[in-house]
């Protein structure tokens, strides 16, 4: 059958093409339908096959275009991600460069610091070596000087004994302690008599009593305690007033020569001066940087002297309360005594077990006494003539120091005598012939310094073994008072 021309079919095809020109797949399908409707049987089969092939090809093309678009979109996303990663990488490189620069700077600083530390350690080692060598030389020189002075003193004593030869006999040497000559009177007997009669016990403080000091006229005494107070009592132990110190406990207490003032040192780095008649603060001495271990008045009442754990000794003006003299010791200063009325010469006891002499006018160290005690020195007491010093130590001994010979001339100890407080101070009787010290065994030991190194009296409490940390001997010779760990006062009368 021949193909038949059908104008209506052509117009329909054109119309459909205009309608579906935007969609090639639909156009292909419609074209195939028109061809089939307007063609012969053989042409219809041929056109159908071509149309299906065309549709299939177009579908594949559309799938490829969709895939291509997806690939393009993925590529755009990948490019954006790559750009972001590139920026991040650049930022990381910048941060890494800064970190490396900082590490290099820190490494250089650390290297410099190590070198400086090595140089510092080397300097310190050289300094310590030099210090040890100088200390050894200084100690050797001090020992040599002490030996020379001792030999000189012995030579002078020998010459004096030779000068006093009479009728082929040598006069008896003077007693080794005091140059003070006492008359055989009722007063001299009272001053040399040991109060051995236990009188009473009275409560004084809430905690242990570290120090006791009589006024110079003997009518009052003061006590200092770890309850942070200083208390005044009459001679009969009747309370007069309580003077609050601070938040820290009292280490030492003393009266001025005219008994007008009371001074106390404490662990809060301050020494305080009160008026004894009113209890009002007169001065607060505040220049120390450590515990103030001791506080004393000069005998002319013009100066006060303090010693501290900060390794310094200070001399204060009583009128202004200002520090006039600062002396730097070699170690912590536990106690100090004045070697004259105006405090121009001082003797201090250090934590290195040594004694040092100081000139307050030149601020210079004058002399040293070594190898007297084997443990910490807790307190000192000066004899009335300034020629001897009595010391107490944690080694459970008392030593009598001859300041002219720069040496210990007597040792006092007892089997039951124990010194456990860092602030226990020994005392001498008013005439200087007896020494006394409190003991942790609850007793007061008394030695005759002229005749024996063994105790001549042991004062005990009838119904108590309360450890005793402090004691005082009345300048009138009438009583000894001891302060206990429990805060009570124990009194012995002659």
Report on the structure:
- The chain has helices at residues 7-20, 24-38, 41-163, 186-192; strands at 197-203, 209-214, 220-225, 229-234, 239-244, 250-255, 261-266, 271-275, 281-285, 292-297, 303-308, 312-317, 323-328, 333-338, 345-350, 355-359, 364-369, 377-382, 388-393, 398-402, 407-412, 427-428, 434-438, 443-448, 455-460, 468-473, 479-484, 488-493.
- The chain has 494 residues and is of the alpha+beta class.
- A four-stranded antiparallel β-sheet has the order 1-28-27-26, with no helix packed on it. A four-stranded antiparallel β-sheet has the order 2-3-4-5, with no helix packed on it.
- Helix 1 (7-20) packs antiparallel against helix 2 and helix 2 packs antiparallel against helix 3 (41-163).
- The termini are far apart.
Brief characterization of the structure:
The chain has 494 residues and is an alpha+beta fold. It is built from 4 helices and 28 strands.
């Amino acid at each position: 059958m021949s193909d038949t021309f059908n104008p209506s079919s052509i117009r329909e095809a054109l119309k459909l093409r205009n309608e579906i020109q935007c969609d090639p797949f639909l156009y292909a399908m419609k074209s195939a339908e028109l061809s089939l409707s307007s063609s012969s049987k053989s042409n219809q089969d041929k056109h159908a096959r071509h149309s299906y092939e065309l549709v299939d090809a177009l579908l594949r093309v559309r799938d490829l275009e969709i895939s291509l678009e997806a690939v393009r979109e993925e590529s755009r996303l990948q490019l954006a991600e790559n750009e972001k990663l590139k920026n991040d990488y650049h930022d990381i490189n910048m941060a890494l460069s800064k970190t490396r620069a900082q590490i290099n700077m820190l490494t250089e600083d650390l290297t410099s610091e190590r070198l400086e530390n090595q140089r510092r350690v080397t300097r310190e080692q050289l300094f310590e070596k030099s210090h040890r060598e100088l200390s050894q030389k200084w100690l050797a020189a001090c020992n040599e000087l002490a030996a020379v002075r001792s030999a000189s003193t012995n030579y002078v004593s020998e010459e004096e004994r030779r000068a006093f030869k009479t009728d082929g006999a040598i006069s008896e040497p003077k007693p080794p302690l005091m140059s003070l000559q006492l008359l055989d009177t009722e007063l001299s007997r009272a001053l040399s008599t040991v109060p051995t009669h236990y009188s009473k016990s009275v409560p004084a403080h809430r905690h242990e009593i570290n120090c006791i000091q009589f006024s110079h006229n003997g009518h009052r005494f003061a006590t200092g305690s770890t309850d942070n107070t200083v208390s005044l009592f009459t001679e009969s132990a009747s309370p007069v007033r309580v003077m609050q110190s601070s938040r820290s406990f009292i280490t030492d207490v003393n009266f001025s020569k005219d008994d007008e003032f009371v001074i106390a040192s404490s662990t809060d780095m301050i020494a305080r001066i009160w008026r004894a008649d009113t209890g009002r603060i007169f001065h607060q001495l505040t220049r120390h940087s450590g515990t103030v271990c001791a506080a004393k008045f000069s005998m002319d009442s013009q100066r006060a002297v303090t010693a501290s754990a900060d390794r310094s000794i200070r001399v204060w003006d009583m009128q202004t309360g200002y520090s006039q003299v600062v002396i730097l010791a070699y170690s912590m200063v536990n106690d100090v005594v004045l070697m004259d009325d105006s405090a121009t010469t001082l003797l201090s006891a250090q934590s290195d077990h040594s004694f040092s002499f100081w000139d307050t006018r030149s601020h210079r160290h004058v002399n040293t006494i070594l190898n007297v005690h084997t443990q910490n020195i807790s307190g000192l007491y000066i004899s009335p003539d300034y020629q001897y010093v009595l010391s107490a130590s944690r080694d459970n001994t008392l030593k009598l120091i001859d300041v002219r010979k720069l040496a210990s001339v007597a040792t006092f100890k007892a089997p039951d005598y124990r010194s456990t407080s860092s602030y226990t101070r020994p005392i001498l009787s008013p005439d200087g012939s007896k020494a006394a010290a409190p003991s942790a065994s609850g007793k007061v030991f008394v030695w005759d310094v002229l005749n024996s190194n063994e105790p001549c009296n042991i004062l005990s409490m009838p119904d108590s073994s309360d450890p005793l940390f402090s004691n005082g001997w009345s300048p009138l010779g009438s009583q000894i008072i001891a302060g206990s760990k429990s805060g009570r006062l124990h009194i012995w009368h002659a």
